[in-house]
Design goal:
alpha/beta, TIM Barrel, 8-stranded parallel barrel, 8 strands, binds phosphoenolpyruvate
Length: 251
């Protein structure tokens, strides 16, 4: 049985005080919600303050990115030990915005995932095709390339600590959601890639989230699909009410 995981990616939003306000409101709304992993990913500057709010609650903390070296002369970067120290349990890696604007590659995603795992934390590995890819019939080849590149050389145990987030790029921040059938088709395809690379048993335990314009209105039908194990939520995670509603729709 896979526990659904709902993660809110706040992207480049929220000052420290705004982040604390949002988390405080969210905490009260989801306090009685069980059987779902609830994760928020504030910007780096707000991690410590948000950690203080979520301590001893059912909300866990994620960072939106990381560098793979632990320390050294890498100006501007943040390492896994630093994120762990700030209270993070998860790190989002390979988000399409990082692939698009910050030269993220399969190779760097793999290095980041490995670094996160080596400190007993969990990477949320984002994969997804562009609209052009979908229209040209390249969805499966892009997904295969992203998934295989990200998990290359990971052991079965390491894979079990990974969450894969399928995020069709054409659905991110556009208001266009994949239909539940489109999402299920790709989630099933991802699980089959993992079956071929690992085993049925391992693949059946890996959680695969859907991301792309998830809202309270469409969350339940997306998460009702057999291979959809939760959601990575951008815009709708910036309001406590809408994010809490998505969380409640996961169970
Ligand atoms: C995201 O940024 O991961 C995302 C899915 O954004 P949105 O929900 O706004 O489409």
């Amino acid at each position: 049985m896979r526990t659904p995981i709902i993660a809110g990616n706040w992207k480049l939003n929220k000052t420290i005080s705004e982040a604390v306000e949002l988390t405080t409101e969210l905490k009260d709304l989801v306090t009685a919600t069980n059987n779902v992993d609830i994760v928020v990913a504030p910007p780096f500057t707000a991690l410590d303050a948000v950690n203080k709010v979520v301590k001893d609650t059912n909300i866990e903390l994620a960072a939106q990115d990381v560098y793979w070296e632990d320390s050294g002369a890498f100006t501007g970067e943040v390492s896994v030990p630093m994120l762990k120290d700030a209270g993070c349990e998860y790190v989002i890696v390979g988000h399409s915005e990082r692939r698009q604007f910050f030269n993220e590659t399969n190779e760097s995603v793999n290095l980041k995932a490995n670094a996160v795992l080596s400190h007993d934390m969990k990477p949320i590995i984002c994969v997804g095709e562009l609209l052009d890819d979908r229209e040209a019939g390249r969805t499966e080849s892009v997904i295969k390339n992203h998934v295989s590149g990200a998990v290359e050389k990971l052991t079965s145990d390491a894979l079990l600590s990974c969450i894969i987030a399928y995020e069709p790029v054409w659905a991110i921040g556009t208001g266009k959601t994949a239909t539940p059938e489109q999402a299920q088709e790709v989630h099933n395809y991802i699980r089959n890639i993992l079956k071929e690379t690992y085993s049925d048993e391992i693949a059946s335990q890996v959680r695969i989230q859907y991301g792309g314009s998830v809202k309270p209105e469409n969350a339940a039908e997306l998460m009702a699909q057999p291979d959809v194990d939760g959601a990575l939520v951008g815009g709708a995670s910036l309001q406590a009410e809408s994010f809490a509603q998505i969380v409640k729709n996961a169970i």
